[in-house]
Specification:
about 500 residues; alpha/beta; Rossmann fold; six-stranded parallel beta sheet; six-stranded mixed beta sheet; 16 helices
């Protein structure tokens, strides 16, 4: 049986995912076979495994840090919000159905056997399992039949490290208040406290740590600094949406819709010299970028309605008429078309006019496409014609069938075998281009160096610029360096000897 340790937080975005990622890397460096686990994840960023199953990206990142391939058992339940009151429920990588929050709250205990089975499979394969909680264990309105925080810790017999975020302020109240709201048996499971995102002179903090240890009766196992590492974020609380990058030679704007998904598609572009990539949520912030990207979304129709109401749609259409490069991915691709039809009420229901920038018709169906693909660009129009012949790879996650009379932009093959015969026939070709407007269903299409450099060189050439030293990072090597930096930073500031004692001692 594997040793277990669980990371819970005082709130969302306290840094649980990052701490789990760093511990996965540390344990791997120390010679252990380690796997991540999160029983229930709520996120719009998801990933398709080699088997064609869908899981949350946080556990994918943690698996990468652990040096193993992502498995759907690491995240047996994924909730993808479709609106403010409900989510698509994905169990063991497969869509169950859409549920309201109240409906899911009553249903979730039926998923305990799936959680136990997934955890047991990992338990048989690994030395250590690093478990991540969700939100806060002190959400007293959600504690009944809990399956992700203390309920999960009890199932796994896992000692808990409780993480508080000092950057937001009130970290002592966060940690002590959380302990006060736990039941006595739950509090006994908390074996260490961890302060995260600290900036400044730690000696000034030491009296507070002494008080925290005394009042909480639980040792503080570390004060983790605000680490300058580039690790994929999982959800809408990411700080990258709020960054103000100085405008570089090439300016790329990503439309930040309310239900934006898989913004990890742009990690390589964000780290390319000479490129500034920024997220835009209102017309006044758009400016005159060289390229506008409409990203994936969990609800195409509602996010298009949001763009229509706040004026961003009109600005994107105007930019396209002036020749600005527009690129839509997945839901963004669907928005670019003429018409969206939702006869079964998968999204908003009914029929909706699209942006009219590409001659497309999308019909939403209950059947979900989820697969890994590779292939190449075919004939590409406009200033990105240089993409022709370049290899591509990525994955598809979408509900909807998009048809067009235009020639396909990409030739692809299904690498996971999760498409039906009719889907393979339709989707052996993907995407279209017309003028300087481009669309595709493929997430990760900008994860290859030759693709992003071809795009950026073309954007530069249009401005009369030659970027001689343009070189994208190798994404895999870049991630490996970041995981090592994260592990080094945590080792320097966590009491790893105490953490190993907690790991060995269990509960």
């Amino acid at each position: 049986m594997a040793k277990t340790i669980m990371i819970q937080g005082t709130m969302s975005n306290a840094g649980k995912s990052l701490i789990c990622t760093g511990l996965c890397r540390i344990f791997r460096q120390d010679g252990y076979k380690v796997a991540p686990f999160k029983s229930q994840n709520m996120a719009l960023n998801s990933f398709i495994t080699e088997e064609g199953l869908e899981m949350g990206r946080a556990q994918v990142v943690q698996a990468e840090a652990a040096g193993i391939a992502p498995q759907v058992q690491m995240n047996p339940i994924l909730l993808k919000p479709t609106n403010d009151m409900g989510s698509q429920v994905i169990v063991n990588g497969e869509v169950q159905k859409n549920m309201s929050a109240r409906e899911y709250f009553a249903y979730k205990k039926q998923l305990i056997p799936d959680i136990r089975k997934a955890f047991r499979q990992l338990d048989e394969m690994y030395d250590i399992i690093v478990i991540e909680g969700a939100g806060s264990p002190a959400e007293i309105n959600l504690k009944e039949d809990d399956i992700v925080n203390m309920g999960m810790a009890k199932m796994a017999k896992a000692p808990v490290l409780l993480v508080g975020d000092i950057d937001r302020g009130g970290v002592f109240a966060q940690l002590l208040g959380t302990l006060m709201l736990l039941d006595e048996d739950e509090k006994e499971m908390v074996k260490g406290l961890l302060i995260n995102k600290f900036r400044g002179d730690k000696t000034i903090l030491d009296p507070g740590i002494d008080m925290l240890t005394e009042r909480g009766g639980i040792p503080v196992v570390g004060v983790a600094p605000y680490l300058d590492v580039e690790i994929e974020d999982e959800d809408s609380l990411t700080e990258r949406f709020h960054g103000q990058k100085e405008c570089a030679c090439i300016d790329i704007a990503v439309i930040r819709t309310p239900r934006i998904s898989n913004f990890t598609d742009f990690m390589l572009l964000e780290n390319l010299n000479g490129v500034s990539l920024r997220y835009v949520d209102r017309p006044s912030k758009l400016g005159s970028p060289d390229m506008i990207i409409l990203p994936g979304t969990k609800n195409t129709m509602e996010d298009l309605r949001w763009m229509r109401q706040n004026g961003l749609e009109a600005r994107v259409v105007r930019a396209a008429s002036h020749g600005t490069v527009i690129w839509g991915i997945c839901g963004g691709y669907q928005m670019l078309g003429d018409i969206l039809r939702d006869p079964e009420g998968i999204e908003a229901g009914g029929t909706m006019k699209g942006m009219g920038l590409l001659p497309l018709e999308t019909i939403f169906t209950k059947e979900k496409t989820r697969t890994r693909v590779d292939g190449r660009f075919l004939k590409v129009e406009g200033i990105l014609a240089g993409l022709e012949g370049i290899a591509l790879e990525g994955y598809e996650i979408h509900m909807g069938d998009t048809r067009s009379g235009l020639p396909a932009m990409c030739e692809i093959k299904d690498c996971a075998g999760k498409q039906t015969a009719s889907q393979r026939t339709r989707q052996s070709m993907d995407g279209v281009s017309m003028g300087n407007v481009y669309g595709t269903y493929i997430h990760g299409i900008f994860d290859r160096e030759d693709v992003v450099t071809a795009v950026v060189r073309a954007l530069a050439a249009r401005k009369g610029m030659i970027l001689d030293d343009l070189k994208a990072v190798d994404l895999k090597d870049f991630k490996e360096r970041q995981y090592d930096l994260l592990a080094d930073g945590l080792r320097s500031h966590l009491d790893m000897k105490k953490i190993y004692e907690i790991l060995e001692g269990g509960i």
